[in-house]
Design a protein that fits this description.
- This protein is mainly alpha-helical.
- The chain contains five helices and two strands.
- It has a two-stranded antiparallel ribbon.
- It is flat, with a radius of gyration of 57 Å.
- It starts with 19 loop residues before the first strand and ends in a 5-residue tail after the last helix.
């Protein structure tokens, strides 16, 4: 079989510097057929081969990316069983599994095309299928573990959220119960205080039943006289305090006036000194001018 790719200078070696086409669902067919590149890559003209598969292109991949994917270790080695321990790692494993499956599909097609020029075509195709089967098995194992981890992580998150909500509900219930008990206690205390007050009032009423009305009047008048006597006794002290306050106010006003008088006097003295200094300066200037010789 001639090479699958050819550059602009006519190079016909296989897989040389052009875009490799990822194809899926390759259908094996006997007979002569021509191959086409996909995604806008100009296909290289090839000579007719005895047998060539037909395929439907679905995506494109650069030669460098294809070589990079084939060069890295199998995904089962990059993600051994039990190594996926975080959601980020699980997502990364799924993304790399999709890349490896893309590269494996393309490698399988290339292996098939390489088998047809050989004498033992069936054995070669069977070996290509076995390699593809092993690759898919490793990819599926990693995908399964990653998806299982993601599902379990989602379940754990849901359980954690439910536990937090349940704890919050229990806390709210305990708080409401405590508030209800406090309200009941306050209500009972108020009822008890009201009953005690009513009992005290009733006791005073019962005690005053046998007391004559004029006695209560005399008792009230005596209380009024006592209050008046206390007010009269405190009157001299209040008068003395008022006089003292008035004296202090007067002293403060006199002090303020004295300060203002001294300030005005100081300002007047400074103005007089300044005026005398200016007069002396003017006299000195006049004397100096009078002593200068008159120019002839």
């Amino acid at each position: 079989m001639q090479g699958l790719f050819a550059d602009a200078k006519g190079v016909t070696s296989s897989l040389c510097g052009l875009m490799l086409t990822l194809v899926a669902g390759a259908t094996m067919a006997q007979g002569q057929a021509s191959t086409q590149a996909a995604a806008g890559v100009q296909p290289a003209q090839t000579q007719a081969s005895p047998v060539s598969p037909a395929a439907a292109p679905v995506a494109t991949m650069s030669r460098e990316r294809f070589d990079e994917l084939e060069a890295r270790p199998p995904i089962a080695q990059r993600y051994p069983a039990g190594s996926i321990k975080s959601d980020e790692l699980a997502q990364k494993a799924l993304e790399e599994a999709a890349e490896d499956r893309q590269a494996a599909e393309l490698r399988y097609i290339l292996d098939q095309r390489a088998c047809y020029p050989k004498f033992l075509v069936s054995d070669c195709l069977e070996a290509a299928r076995d390699r593809k089967r092993l690759t898919d098995k490793g990819i599926k194992a990693v995908e399964y573990e990653a998806k299982v981890f993601q599902r379990q992580a989602a379940v754990d998150d849901r359980d954690r959220s439910l536990a937090e909500q349940r704890a919050k509900d229990e806390e709210d219930s305990a708080r409401r119960l405590a508030e209800q008990k406090q309200k009941e206690a306050d209500s009972a205390r108020k009822v008890k205080e009201s009953r005690a007050k009513n009992s005290e009032v009733q006791q005073r009423i019962d005690q005053s039943k046998d007391v004559p009305a004029d006695y209560r009047v005399r008792q009230h008048e005596a209380e009024v006289q006592r209050q008046k006597a206390e007010e009269a006794a405190r009157a001299p002290a209040r008068a003395a305090n008022a006089a003292e306050r008035q004296r202090r106010i007067q002293q403060a006003e006199e002090h303020r006036l004295e300060v203002e008088r001294k300030k005005a006097e100081n300002e007047r003295e400074r103005a007089e000194r300044k005026q005398k200094q200016q007069q002396q300066l003017d006299q000195q200037q006049q004397q100096q001018q009078s002593q200068q010789p008159v120019a002839k």
